[in-house]
Amino acid sequence: MPSPQWPRKAVVKSRQMPQSSVVVPQSVRDAARDSVGVFFASISGCDPQASADDHLDTSKAFARVEGLRRLTPLEGKKLLEVGSGFGVNLAVFVKDFGIDGYGVEPDGEGFGCSFASSREIFAANGLDPARIIPAVGEALPFPDESFDVVYSSYVLEHVQDPVQVLSESVRVLKPGGILSFELPNHLSYFEGHYLVPQPPLVVNVLPLWVRMWGRDPAFARTLRTEINPVWCRRAVKKIGKKYPVTLLSLGERDFLDRLAKPFQFEMQRVAGKLGFAIKTMQKVNVGNWVGHTIVGLQGFYPISMVLRREAAR
User: What is the b/e burial string over 286-296, where b = at least 16 CB atoms within 10 angstroms of the residue's CB?
Assistant: First the structure.
């Protein structure tokens, strides 16, 4: 059979980011291509190598550090990443910024090789692989009030019990500590795994929807499509009955700011799908009326949930 012809990667202007000192071994790059790369090729039709490169891009960690620093100083702080994946973010946090960082990633679940690969990256960079612990977010293996920051990126939609993961993350936060979770918004207009437009989902019709686009719905059945801004506020209220927390943001202002200026895509595979549509929308977005309308409809993307744990009352 002839080799599949994958779409070419889009050329997108982006801000020059600092170079990381973190080295990603070729064996990890090969494993990522053959696991997460092939996995997303079957779902979104993207080049397996492009998907793998997105997951192993160390420059993204610099942007994430910038975002976290806007919330809280990181110097001398202890940080936990829930769902640390291939460990690239965490390795940059520890090696390039001196953050006292730890991660949890299930061993042998999800993308299969991510836990082993993350420990391989740590060892290759002279970091302690034991900083990445095989565990799930519903049962974090740490004492109460252990961390100053708990961070997670696009993990909550894949877990068995997202409210329990949030509750556990708050449990291990010190009073005054910050939780920062990036989440998809299923009231939005785009499905980021399958890379297809979607209607706002108030019931789980995503498997049927992606099937209409000619995609395999099996993965869609595993996603927590109840996650949206309304769900987030309810979850925080529920957690607040057990732990004193303050919801600082769901990312509305960040969304408006991004839409009002030249758009920066984190994932090249997403840029190739949405680049033209975003540029067209921005041409008519006078006074950011489009952004304000989307925020009013609770369709902003992504959700950037920021909580602060308060001192016991």
Answer: eebebbeebbe
